[in-house]
Amino acid sequence: MKKQTQTMNKVAETSPNPSPKTSATWIKAIPNALTLLNLLSGVTAILLTLRGQIELSGLFFIACLLLDFADGLTAKLLHATSETGKQLDSLADLVSFGVYPGMAMFVTLEATVGSNTLWPFLAFLIPAAGALRLAIFNTEEQTSDYFKGLPIPAAAIGFISIAILADRALTGTNFYEILTSPSLSIIAIALFSFLMVSKLPMLSFKLNNLKWEENKFRIIFFLLVIIAFIGGKLVVLPFLIPFYIVYSLLFVRTKR
Questions:
Q1: Rounded CA gap, 18 and 15, in Å?
Q2: 3-state SS assignment for residue 206
Q3: Do residues 119 and 182 touch, judged by C-beta distance below 8 A?
Q4: Beta-carbon count within 10 A of 234 CB
């Protein structure tokens, strides 16, 4: 019996146990997994848009926004930030917040001005400006309080808002006729694309901690948006990004 016990102890000692290094590797892979889910949600949204299901694609766009926020926060909490994660995040953002809005606005312009003109191809400016914006963001030093230029997710919110509400107006399910105007889509594409590559300071929503004093402007902004959505629902969407731009300018002025 004693000999059998000694044998079992030796087996236990030689059994492979997961090393701390292996566990740490798996933990650090979590943010990248969330980033890949962001990318795949963006690809799904593109597919649905090209099939004419713009409203349904909006649900996957919301998933992209949540995952984009979650991967960065998770990386900080798990101390899993890396250069690979940074580059992967930019590639996912280009798909979800650049290519997808570009396709959505292309479909919207085709529906409003027709496919026999070149105007719908103006939407290709969106992923081009988004790619340039991400390249600038990755190579220039940024402050923790604000971004230089309109963040690509914010621009994407503006574009998708127009596309979804215009789709509702065109299908007769609601009255947003003004959003079916090609002029509005063209102006939005030109303006938001320019702002993405501009040096205009915009409020950053990245949280380094949960302290009220350091995050009060971000919290107030989100509370105002929630109140606006409760009161105006989807009508609020087209005004969200203009409000964000004005709010950011006020924020920067108070910080100086």
A1: 10
A2: coil
A3: yes
A4: 13
Phi, psi of 115 (to 5 degrees): -95, 5
42-101 pLDDT, tens digit each: 999 999 999 999 999 999 999 999 999 898 888 888 888 888 888 999 999 999 999 999
The total number of structural domains in the chain stands at 1
- Of 245, 242, 122, 100, nearest to 182 (Cα)? 122
* CA–CA separation, 165 and 150 (whole Å): 22
Region of 206 (left: φ > 0; alpha: ψ -120 to 50; beta: rest) is beta
Coil vs helix vs strand at 29: helix
Give the CATH number of the domain where residue 186 resides.
1.20.120.1760
Q: Is residue 236 part of a domain?
A: yes
What gap in Å lies between CA 129 and CA 80, rounded to an integer?
29
pTM over 0.85: no
207 Ramachandran zone, left/alpha/beta (phi>0; psi -120 to 50): beta
